[in-house]
Design goal:
single chain; 7-stranded mixed β-sheet; 5-stranded parallel β-sheet; disordered N terminus
Length: 735
Amino acid sequence: MRAILFLLLFVLFPFSGKSQALYKEVAKINDSVDYYLEIAIFNKEDKKSFNKAIFYTEKAIDFAKNSNLQSKLGDCYLVLGGIYFEIQKIDDAIDNYIRSINSYGKNVPKSNLALAYYNLGKCYIAKNKPELSDIYFKKASLIFQELNFTDAIELINLQKAILLTEKGEKEEASKIFKRIIINSNENEALTETRIEALYQLSLIEFGNKNYNESINLLNKALTLNSNGPKNLNLQKKVLKQISDTYKANTDYEKSYKYLALYATITDSIGNFYSNYVNENAYDKIQFEKQLKTIELLDKEKKSQQKTLRFSKLISILSIALISILSLLSLSLYKNNKIRISTNKLLKEKNKELIKEKEKVEKASKARAEFMATVSHELRTPLNAINGITYLLLQEKPRANQLNYLKSLEFSGNYLLNFINDILEINRLESDKILVEKISFNIHELTTNIRNSFNEFIHENKVNCHLDIDDSIHHYLIGDPTKLSQVIINLMNNAIKFTKNGDVWFTVKKLNESNTNIKLYFEVRDNGIGIPKDKQETIFDSFSQGSVEINRTYGGTGLGLSIVKKILELLGTEVKLESDTDKGTSFRFVVDFEKGKELSEQKIFHANTENQCFKDKSVLLVEDNKINQMITLKMLEKKEVKCTIIDNGEEAIEHLKDHHYDLVLMDVHLPGINGTEATAAIREFDTDTPIIALTAISLNENREMLLSYGMNDVITKPFIPDNFYAVISEYLNIPK
């Protein structure tokens, strides 16, 4: 099995002999993606140094992004997924395999794409999701058949048969295992595949109580493994199964024999090392005892040389010493009994604590799911409120109507922010957040955040001072989204609680090396401040100090809780200094790597790119009548031709005979849902961009939706500028 995967990886990285050495020398000079991947694979396969393998693969990804080498990104994510799979980080492996599949374009070698599908199928086997695994194995199998990769097809057949066994379809699985054993008989590259098939077939026979046939198959597997390069992992599990089979067949002598062989392979290396350490430790202890004995004898010898007038005193002291030692021994014995009794009590208390912990975790999970469900369900009517308000504001309302619409817009945005805060705190508590490492401009990010508060600053009559150290390296590597969330929440609080006052936003450099930099962030105000007795709970969810503050200033009480949790993810903490009527200061420190200036930046300009919408055709698949009307109006404002279908089945049939520049697909549809409809469309149309429309929740994530063939995701309620920006990107794709 490893041999076949190595052949597939060889398609990705064809280096051998003198050409390989020559390539490495050139790669070292050019700092290429392939060079970093070569080092990563060497550390993973030969040295089993996974930390270094991940490090060099990440360097390859950064180099590919900075050099705009889109075709190489798929290879990078494929290698990174393999590393995470081997160290049992299955979720990370799935994420990188999906990125690999989405990165591959039409001209990529199909063997790479097939390998990504195959590995994704293996991941979902490990996650015990056979339905998803079967989907990706079928995709890989189709490509391997097209390329006539017989060995790889046998690998997929083996995985499919294992899936069938888990589903209880053992008869069909048995046929596939037998066919694999026959087909792989003459192919040395498939030796491990044949051994695995023999092992799996023996399990089926064991389940049917055909113990002799099971033992026969396992012996064949052992013989095959002995004839070639030994795979110790395969040999271990085969020996264990032989022992179990003999035991079930009441042949205990042979069962013990094979169990001893299994134990020998499993424990020999560990026992050797353990014995080696113990023996050395034992020798050291014995040496120290002998040294003490020699010293004692020497003292006794010197004592004997003393005059007899001290002999009586020595005897008395010896008796006293023996008495003390006896008392100490008795004390140690009693203490040991107390310790045993205490340990037993502690174990019982630990069991009680574990039960209580499980109850708390269940309650916390139920609360998170309830809050996510409520927030999710609120998004559909809120989309209607915000959408209709936006459309009415665009139609030049009368002055007396404008105030009402502005109030409605404010209320809708306030409710949307509240719902977003609830979802964000639930996501942070569910440990589903990954910290990104991408290049960004720190000066540009802080300036943009400051400018985004201009209207709020003007409303509260606040003097806002931005002070960022000019000597700070402009481009850093980190997570700009999470850093922005922290700063925005702190700035929003400072401005809200500091009417007619001053707010200072400061960024300073603490220390710097050739590759890293440590920055100090502070948001300070001279507003109402926080009482000393409220400072310990101010970072708790839904906490605002007092009911009076909530009524006067509004807000959800989630901002500082989000700040604290995000900074914990970034490996740091927020520090607070405040007093009533004297203002508040929030400070934190973050480490960054230095980045490189981006050669290209994609910035959407709504006013200059309106031409890309004109006369384009869009299919809207949406069952909610109000959402249909809102989306249609927003598209018509940009002169886009829009066709509406309210269910997935009709959309699939319609797209077989009609072409559109873009499809907007609601995820939750009557009948088959949006993801199933997208998967069906991708079977005959792989080119038309499909964008998901969803009130995304904890159980839906971007990667899951993209895995069905969707190109992007727009979250309800729509933010108009974001809505137009996303669809513009796909309407501008050259055909």
